[in-house]
Automatic annotation (TrEMBL):
Top-level taxon of origin: Eukaryota
Species whose genome carries this gene: Chanos chanos
GO biological process: adenylate cyclase-activating adrenergic receptor signaling pathway; adenylate cyclase-inhibiting adrenergic receptor signaling pathway; chemical synaptic transmission; circadian rhythm; positive regulation of MAPK cascade; smooth muscle contraction; vasoconstriction
Coarse class of the protein's main subcellular location: membrane
CDD domains registered for this protein in UniProt: 7tmA_5-HT7
GO CC list: plasma membrane; synapse
Pfam families associated with the record: 7tm_1
UniProt name for this protein: 5-hydroxytryptamine receptor 7
Matches recorded under SUPFAM superfamilies: Family A G protein-coupled receptor-like (SSF81321)
Record's bilayer topology term: Multi-pass membrane protein
Family, per entry: Belongs to the G-protein coupled receptor 1 family.
TM spans (from-to): 58-82, 94-115, 135-154, 174-195, 215-236, 305-328, 348-367
InterPro entries linked: 5HT_7_rcpt, 5HT_rcpt, GPCR_Rhodpsn, GPCR_Rhodpsn_7TM
Length: 401
């Protein structure tokens, strides 16, 4: 006969329950490992680590190393170009240098450690102390890059819509203060884990930024969501100004043709008049054409600014939005102790964000003829007379217009 009292006593003991739970977890890990022989588990955090073959490690390492190298080269070219070329050495380009320095820092002090961690399947191998330092560098550099993109969008908007009243583009000290503010805000996100507000997660083989709910909301909002909203608003305002200018230009262009036809007819009828009357008519036509050229220049500048900022905002959103959505949702889904997100997904989205640092120097070069010319000269090691060649190209382009 079945002894129910013994069953009730054994089932009610905490030791028995603990043994059952631990045995179930071990059985679960064994089942998963047998289903996927390439999976390893970090039992302290429950994360599934990846176990790559040698060929996979070589392939992944080469891809990530190429991304890092291109990021270093591209952003180094930006810094050298602005420092060497007199035409580019203006306060409005100081922001480009700040952006390049932030992206270059990501490539030099962050990406190599991420590559090593990825090639070990996601296992952190550099200890707890350096884990905190690494997270601080990562957050600081990435936030500075994102915040600089935000300030660049505001600078472009004010430079286009208020060219006479916006002094920062001609004031190097004011621009330097703006850059200092960018890095100060970045530091405000980096320092809390060092000051006791939120503690980074470091267990055996895991290095993860603090999953504290308040810190997560604060850091993701300041580092990404607010800058993204500002950039979208600036793009909308520039796009709206460009459309308004385009409509005005088309109206003026039709009016100009009518007036020129009328002036031509009047000139034919006034062939018998005195030369001063003809000279006044020519002067009026000259002033009209000068205003039209100026309107066309403003229109083209606004169109270029709208296109450039649109590409920047688009690339920025594609690169960083998935990662920050994941980062914001993770503590609410997984808790504050560790991450339950698959490592492969986390690493893919992280490198997608890092790709923004790779693309930034080439986006600006695509829309800036002076940067393109300087890149070509620097890559060809044509350092001598680089300023003279760039000035000659500018004069040639001006004559074509």
């Amino acid at each position: 006969m079945f002894n129910t009292s013994r069953f009730d006593t054994s089932f009610g003991s905490s030791e028995y329950v603990s043994e059952v739970i631990n045995g179930s977890l071990r059985l679960f890990y064994n089942i998963v490992a047998s289903a996927d022989p390439t999976a390893m588990w970090n039992e302290s955090c429950g994360e599934q680590l990846l176990d790559f073959t040698t060929a996979e490690k070589i392939f992944i390492g080469m891809i990530l190393a190429i991304m890092t190298t291109v990021t270093v080269i591209g952003n180094t070219l930006v810094v050298i170009a602005v420092c060497v070329v007199k035409k580019l050495r203006q306060p409005s380009n100081y922001l480009l240098v700040s952006l390049a320095v932030a992206d270059l820092s990501v490539a030099i002090v962050v990406m190599p450690f991420v590559i090593v961690t990825d090639l070990t399947g996601g296992k952190w191998m550099f200890g707890e102390v350096f884990c905190n330092i690494f997270i601080g560098m990562d957050v600081m550099c990435c936030t500075a890059s994102i915040m600089t993109l935000c300030v660049i969008s505001v600078d472009r908007y004010l430079g286009i819509t208020r060219p006479l009243t916006y002094p920062a583009r001609q004031n190097g000290q004011l621009m330097a203060k703006m850059i200092f503010g960018v890095w100060l805000v970045s530091a405000s996100i980096t320092l809390p884990p060092f000051c006791g507000w939120a503690k980074n997660v470091h267990t055996a083989g895991v290095c993860l930024i603090s999953q504290d709910f308040g810190y997560t909301i604060y850091s993701t909002a300041v580092a990404f969501y607010i800058p993204m909203l500002v950039m979208l608003f600036m793009y909308y305002k520039i796009f709206k100004a460009a459309r308004k200018s385009g409509a005005k230009h088309r109206f003026t262009d039709l009016s100009r043709r009518d007036r020129l036809e009328q002036a031509a007819n009047e000139t034919l009828r006034m062939q018998g008049l005195k030369p001063p009357g003809v000279a006044e008519e020519c002067a009026a036509l000259s002033r009209l054409l000068s205003r039209e050229r100026q309107n066309m220049s403003i229109f083209k500048r606004e169109q270029k600014a709208a296109t450039t900022l649109g590409v920047i905002v688009g690339v920025f959103s594609v690169c960083w939005l998935p990662f920050f959505i994941l980062s914001t949702a993770r503590p609410f889904i997984c808790g504050v102790e560790c991450s339950c997100v698959p490592i492969w997904l986390e690493r893919v989205l992280l490198w997608l964000g890092y790709a923004n640092s790779l693309m930034n120097p080439f986006i600006y070069a695509f829309f800036n003829r002076d940067l393109r010319s300087t890149y070509r000269d620097l890559l060809r090691c044509r350092y001598r007379n680089i300023n003279r060649r760039l000035s000659a190209v500018g004069v040639h382009e001006a004559l074509k217009v």
